[in-house]
Request: fold
Amino acid sequence: MIKVENLHKKFGKNEVLSGIHTTIQKGEVVAIVGPSGSGKSTLLRCMNQLEHVSSGTIWVNDKKLTDSSTNIMQLRQSIGMVFQHFHLFPHKTVLENLIYAPMKVKGLKRQIAEKKAKELLEQVGLSIKANEYPKRLSGGQKQRVAIARALAMEPEYMLFDEPTSALDPEMVNEVLDVMKDLGNSGMTMVIVTHEMAFAREAADRILFLDGGKLVEESEPSAFFNNPQTDRAKAFLNKVL
Amino acid sequence: MNLDFGQFVPNIPYILQGILVTLKFVSVSAIVGFALGTILALFKIGRVKVLSWLADAYTSVFRGTPLILQLLLFYHATPQLTGYDISAFEAGVLSFGLNSAAYISEIIRAGIRAVDTGQNEAAAALGIPYRPMMKDIILPQAMKNILPALMNEFITLTKESAIVSVIGVFDIMRRSQIVAAEKFKYFEPLLIAGIIYYVLVMMLTLVGKLVERRMSRSD
Reply:
């Protein structure tokens, strides 16, 4: 469970998140949607402390993520993250990308890490690319490798920060399909996305952010068919 | 013109022996400079204010004063200040190593800065601690970008090493001067020294190209 309590985040004087409350349950797939600059990515990045919160509390399971005494590095091992621009390690092959953190951080033996990595590459349909360097992959392939790299740490949670926004349109689905499978397998996922059809189909719950506030929080069918607030209505009118 | 290389043929082996001295001197200085330069670069980009201030001050002093002055200070002032009878070779390695560390630290700092911050974030999100992140993720990428600048620095080091001849290290330069003084003829031995330095630098350039090619496997 990830629990966010009264989260505030300021960049200088600019408050990008003001008073967010929400709880992500185990096994849930939550999509965060909203206009650009609404604070979606910042909220997501607070959930593994890539952004430090200005005030408020975030719990991951029974640990206070926002406490300075918490070992964030250790907690991050249980929270995988996928970025808009992939951020694969360009000087390492696909396989090396996958086994580096499990070996270095978890101390797995190379043999075991490689076995797991190959299973994951199989899962994302990229076994044949194991020994390629990232530069040789398409955007969609890079993102699938990035998902596999995060999964190699066997996280409890997966955070996705606009995972398809940097992709050519014809590559979006191959990534979304991998994510759908992952959600169906019971992974707890938080996804910042502009793919409304995907959010509607794959998410259990939608968080709608606007101006740094959590404006609506409901099931996809309720949110898309019957939005409660004017701001959500205006947003949906623009994107659907 | 009365050029006569023939009379210098017996002296050529003596000058050539200087290559070993120069190479030993340059490689030790380069290792000192590179190791210290890396540490200084990490201080400069680090969050500890005192360390980054120290590293900046260090660079400022070593870049801001003549190398030959630093060399003479290390050589002559060390015995005066500490009583330790420093050898010419030690003084040379110390001043060249410390001096090039100042330049190399700037090169490496720029190289680290040029690595996409996303790489730091990806490493952090995987729970990779600072040390392995720097060693295995950031620095290898930085090194690839700065290799040409680094080779420049090593080439400069090789050529400028001729300055150690002033404190009596028997390198290529000093040996050619000794030969010149013996025969009262300067052009030929200096030309021989020049050719040797040029060939050394060419070989270094070649090594640089090979390393560069090897490092761009991932392209």
